[in-house]
Amino acid sequence: MGSIKFHLLNENKQFIFAHRGFTSLYPENTLESIEYALDDIDIDGVELDLTFTKDKKIVIFHDKNLERLFKRSDKINELDEKCLRELDITGKIGLKDISYNRKYKIIFLDDLINIIEKYPKKIFNLELKYYSHDLNLLNEFKNIITKNLQKFDSQIIYTSFNLDLIQNFSMNSPNYKTGMLIHKQEKLVEFLKKGTFVDYLILNKNLDLSIINNKFYIGVYTLNSNKYEDEDPNIEANNNIDSVILKNDNIKIFIIDY
């Protein structure tokens, strides 16, 4: 199973999320993969991916297209729900090129709701993936998600690499927990210039952290690794330079090795 370990050094807490479910046994983001992971008492929650179909349905899927999982060139936002539900995930596919001997299905928002209801004590880290520049469509994407998942706000953290998306989401849905995923230095600078409007800032460990004020929580988590370390040299070297004053004193900052 690929796992993401969140560790808040200041609070001595660690949270473990199954990355797209239990992908060592089942295809990523499938019902079987997600529920198998959530049945593990040592797992705090799962990290899943949400995006839009052609007919404006929320689908739990990571990639822009079907190439990796289905050996097809179709883009996910060019197909409707009916077409996607008819597809079978089978054969040698997945994060680790594992061979699966039975057929599995893509799941949608209604399936996710059933899962969240079944696991009320688990946390769902939902990464929002949006591949259009249409602002109206962006708002519709956000509204569909918030309308259907609002009663689960205590269980959900919404994250994204898309700055406009997560800013829109955070500003218009202040009751929800949000996180910004950043893996490039210029994106970190861009984010800081706009102000802090998220609860979590999740950074690639190779970024220069000297522009981040030292009064915020610094954490470490590792991706798909059995080795865990409490300290990261990037933190000690960079978290004491007071060059940017962030507005939100409660923001949590995590470092990740993508």
Q: Can you put this structure into words, describing what you see?
A:
By secondary structure, the chain is of the alpha/beta class. It has a single domain, classed as TIM Barrel, CATH 3.20.20. The chain contains 8 helices and 13 strands. The strands form 2 sheets. The protein has a 9-stranded mixed β-barrel with strand order 1-2-3-8-9-10-11-13-12. A two-stranded antiparallel ribbon has the order 5-6. The longest helix is centred in the middle third of the chain and has 15 residues, at 135-149. Pfam families: GDPD. GO terms for molecular function: phosphoric diester hydrolase activity. InterPro entries: GP_PDE_dom, PLC-like_Pdiesterase_TIM-brl. This is Glycerophosphoryl diester phosphodiesterase family.
List the helices and strands and how they pair.
Layout: E1 3-8, E2 13-19, H1 31-38, E3 45-52, E4 58-60, H2 67-70, H3 81-85, E5 89-93, E6 98-104, E7 107-108, H4 109-118, E8 123-128, H5 135-149, E9 156-160, H6 163-172, E10 177-182, H7 185-194, E11 200-204, E12 217-221, H8 233-238, E13 252-256
Parallel strand pairs: 2-3, 3-8, 8-9, 9-10, 10-11, 11-13, 12-13
Antiparallel strand pairs: 1-2, 1-12, 3-4, 4-7, 5-6
